[in-house]
Write a structure and sequence with these properties.
Strands 1, 2, 3, 4, 5, 6 and 7 form a 7-stranded antiparallel beta sheet that branches. The chain is globular and about 90 Å long. 58% of the residues lie in helices and 12% in strands. Among the domains are: 38-280, Beta-Lactamase, CATH 3.30.450.20; 519-683, Four Helix Bundle (Hemerythrin (Met), subunit A). With 683 residues, the chain is an alpha+beta fold. The chain contains 21 helices and 13 strands. The chain starts with a helix and ends with a helix. A hairpin with a 5-residue loop joins strand 6 and strand 7. The longest helix is centred in the first third of the chain and has 50 residues, at 24-73.
């Protein structure tokens, strides 16, 4: 049957070649225009994606400025200072302190000022650059800005209303187009308890922070026809040559240059135009050159297509067989009886991927540790202990330390596991690296670098690299895990013990890689520990976790503000659910949270997808596959909730699993995306 299928595919190949040759003349005649139009279409679509991403970034930033502004007006020290008609020195000192703390966090706040109703500056905090320390401007340098348009406009507002100025320079009477600080003023009036207007609170926002987040070929055009863009890390603020009259669209500058634009309105009388400057390369070759190229390509195509078809056929066949082998292996694993296996498998998968990624940075391993190798070791790691299915319950589930005879029996799980995987490989003729790596990890992860391990006694590089990597991960997780016969070992002690075995039990270069990324190891361990602690509290056990919520949130940051803000919202919602479950109350709030996450997580994944697509992220497909898995798990929770008889039970376990998976996803897969994006932009 397989041969007949292959013959049919070859017949289809011959027919395809005949049709291709028949259409060659038409392709040659129409080819030049098709190529050109296709190039234009692709670049237009890419420009539209960049426009959408830029709009999201700017709208998110504008909303953040407004929220921070209104939050500052609610501070007790600000209210007291306003109530005193700006005469209280104690309140003024407290206000200055709060404003300095704000400016230290939000480096794009160039000035933070309180100005009285007569236009006199009362408090002024300055951030000279995105990398400077904010300072308080002395009283003698404060001045009157009476009559300035943004002050007058703000004084005419009602309480809690916000005014957005046009974008111009921080120095109202001066424009240096290459060395200015372009600012957006966000302000709100200040009223006392008697609803009397006393002044205004104004943020001067350094617009360069937003510009650094936008694509490199993006610029902002203001309503009064100024153009802002970055050049050599400086903001250029100059008259625009582009007379844009519509809300959105494309402006053709020349045959090779187009401006795509869209308008953002963040107040009734204030708009920004987001522009993407696209230059389309002219066709490099003449029509005659195109004919020659087509002829060469078709000839080569005719020769190679058969071999390419055969190769793809073999790959599809291997894939089909791989599915059978994978199902077989996972089915064997599912029969395991060790209740501690699940979390151990998840953690060691993450550790293995981290170590492989760290080794990939070294020149020595770049040829061996490819992206495929990293993905394979991540997927294969979960099969390392499948041989435990052959270990008696009396040994596998023993709560105390094993005797020497029991330990020798436990060692046989390596042989059993490697036989299971070897059987699958030989039976189905598998040649895919995933199964070879899985077999090697299973068979050799208890070998020692000095040859004193089991079962083969291999020495040094004779031990497969994947097994050397996993050995460190397996031992680290064992040391950090609490067992009935031992307590959890602290992270520094585990590192010290592993370091002492460098060159003995473990490959020194793998140990060195661990020490370089040891914080990430600790983060993963702590995230699982934290969620496990919550789980134990739900079921009234005595386990107490010691991880700080604040520290965990900080560890989840990947360096991209928009994504980090969304991560915090997701984590806060999960935290709220777990706390509700911990009280034993299945309230309507949990249902609302699940519904919220169902929509918000999808929007969050779309945000990450936008970043990956715009920046041509190489791991896009793998990342999106993980997104699909997380969405599926969230859907399972929603289905469980539809059962009115279900209260805690399996639903809380699904929530915990989703939380574990989401945090693990952030700490590993999203961290890698963050490192990639931070190298391209300064967030």
């Amino acid at each position: 049957m397989m041969n007949n299928k292959y013959i049919r595919q070859n017949r289809l190949f011959v027919l395809s070649i005949t049709l291709i040759m028949s259409l060659l003349i038409f392709i040659i005649l129409a080819g030049e225009r098709i190529v050109y139009d296709g190039d234009i279409g692709r670049e237009d679509e890419l420009a539209k994606n960049k426009i959408r991403l830029s709009e999201k970034i700017i709208k998110k930033s504008i909303k953040s400025y407004k929220n921070n502004l209104l939050m500052m007006t609610e501070l007790p020290e600000v209210s007291t200072y306003v109530e005193s008609d700006f005469t209280s020195k104690v309140s003024e000192t407290a206000v200055c302190k709060s404003f300095v703390e704000l400016a230290a966090v939000f480096k794009d706040f160039f000035w933070v000022r309180i100005i009285d109703a007569d236009g006199m500056e009362r408090v002024k905090i300055e951030n000279k650059s995105l990398h400077s320390t904010p300072n308080i401007i002395p009283k003698k340098f404060l001045k009157s800005i009476k009559g300035h348009y943004y002050l007058n406009n703000t004084l005419n507002l009602k309480n809690k209303q916000v005014y957005y100025s046009k974008i111009d320079t921080s120095y109202e009477d001066f424009k240096d187009t290459m060395n200015c600080t372009a600012v957006l003023r966000v302000s709100t009036p200040l009223f006392n308890s008697r609803n009397e207007l006393k002044g205004v609170l104004i943020f001067n926002i350094n617009i360069s922070e937003i510009l650094t987040l936008l694509p490199s070929n993006a610029f902002i055009q203001t309503a009064d026809n100024y153009r802002l863009y970055l050049k050599d890390n400086r903001v250029v603020f100059e008259d625009s040559d582009y007379n844009i009259k519509t809300e959105s669209g494309m402006m053709k500058i020349s045959d090779s240059k187009h401006i795509h634009f869209d308008t953002i309105e963040f107040s009734p009388d204030n708009k920004l135009i987001i522009c993407i400057n696209e230059e389309n390369k002219e066709l490099k070759y003449s029509f005659l050159s195109l004919i020659v190229i087509f002829m060469v390509v078709v000839l080569i195509f005719s020769i190679l297509l058969f071999f390419i078809g055969k190769m793809f056929y073999q790959r599809f066949n291997d894939f089909d067989l791989s599915q059978k082998a994978l199902v077989s292996s996972l089915a064997a694993l599912a029969d395991g009886r060790d209740p501690e296996t699940g979390s151990h498998l998840e953690r060691t998968k993450q550790y293995s991927m981290l170590l492989a990624q760290e080794l990939q940075k070294q020149d020595k391993y770049k040829g061996k540790v490819t992206n495929d190798f990293i993905q394979d070791i991540y997927n294969a790691a979960s099969l390392h202990d499948i041989g435990k299915v052959g270990i008696p319950d009396s040994i596998l589930l023993k709560p105390a330390k094993l005797t020497e005879d029991e330990f020798n029996a436990m060692k046989s799980h390596v042989i059993i596991g490697s036989k299971i995987l070897n059987s699958a490989i030989e039976r189905y003729g598998l040649s895919q690296s995933l199964f070879i790596i899985a077999r090697n990890i299973c068979a050799y992860h208890h070998e020692k670098f000095n040859g004193k391990g089991y079962t083969k006694g291999l020495i040094g590089d004779a031990i497969p690299l994947e097994a050397r990597i996993f050995a460190v991960c397996d031992v680290y997780d064992a040391l950090r895990s609490k067992r009935p016969y031992k307590e959890e070992m602290p992270h520094p002690d585990a590192l010290e013990m592993i370091s002492k075995e460098s060159g003995q039990s473990f490959d020194p270069e793998v140990v060195a890689a661990l020490l370089r990324c040891e914080r990430d190891f600790n983060n993963i361990h702590n995230s699982y520990k934290y969620l496990y602690a919550m789980f134990c509290q739900i079921y009234e056990t005595n386990y107490i976790g010691n991880l700080s919520y604040i520290n965990l949130v900080e560890k989840l940051n990947i360096g991209v503000k928009e994504i980090d803000d969304q991560h915090k919202i997701i984590f806060d919602e999960i935290q709220s659910m777990l706390k509700s479950i911990n009280t034993g109350k299945w309230s309507a709030d949990i249902d609302k949270t699940i519904k919220f996450l169902g929509k918000y997580v999808v929007d969050h994944f779309d945000t990450e997808d936008d970043f990956m697509v715009v920046n041509n992220y190489s791991a896009l497909s793998f990342h999106q596959l993980e997104h699909k898995r997380l969405r599926t798990n969230l859907a399972k929770i929603k289905i469980r909730l539809s059962d009115s008889n279900n209260l805690l039970g399996g639903t809380s376990e699904l929530i915990l699993q989703f939380a574990q998976d989401e945090i693990s996803h952030i700490l590993t897969i999203d961290k890698a995306l963050g490192e990639f994006l931070v190298k391209r932009y300064t967030f």
